[in-house]
Design brief:
Number of helices: 2
Strand content: 35-45%
Mean pLDDT: 97
CATH topology: Glucose Permease (Domain IIA)
Number of domains: 1
Oligomer: single chain
CATH superfamily: Glucose Permease (Domain IIA)
Length: 150
């Protein structure tokens, strides 16, 4: 399964995420994105599928074969109670890769003292099933190849 970058940013290794749940791949392998400090960022679907869990700060997309991607916008952002996030889809909605899911403010997250880094995780996947297509430390544009999940 081909997964594209759900937003523009600098590609980071999950080990750089300041949350042990993500940095140790407890919920699955993946990559992370540093969106910078802009006032508005767009989170788009990294693949086609159905919206599963949906919160202002996080979303899951389930592919037809059951594999699920989680994108979490920032760290400890649940504590913001939705401030700075605007959901553009509904739970259960079918989406195509590139469809707008959430608009949000990395600047607001940073101003709150939290990290704006965004883990993109293959939920419950085994280690070694992802082939990175983006280079850690390099910028990536929205919709660019991100990783393959074999």
């Amino acid at each position: 399964m081909h997964v594209v970058s759900p937003m523009a940013g600098i590609v980071r290794d999950l080990s750089e995420v300041p949350d042990v749940v993500f940095s140790t791949e407890m919920v699955g392998p993946g990559l992370a994105l540093d969106p910078g400090d802009g006032d508005v960022a767009r989170l788009c679907a990294p693949m086609a599928g159905r919206i599963g869990a949906l919160f202002p700060h996080a979303v899951t997309i389930e592919a037809a074969d059951g594999r699920t991607i989680l994108v979490h916008l920032g760290i400890d952002t649940v504590e913001l109670a939705g401030a700075g996030f605007e959901v553009q889809v509904a739970g259960g909605q079918l989406v195509s890769a590139g469809d707008l899911l959430i608009t949000w403010s990395p600047a607001s997250v940073l101003a709150s003292g939290r990290s704006a880094i965004c883990p993109v995780v293959a939920l419950q996947a085994d280690p070694g099933v992802l082939t990175p297509l983006a280079t850690v430390g390099e910028p990536v544009v929205l919709g660019a190849p991100f990783f393959d999940w074999v």
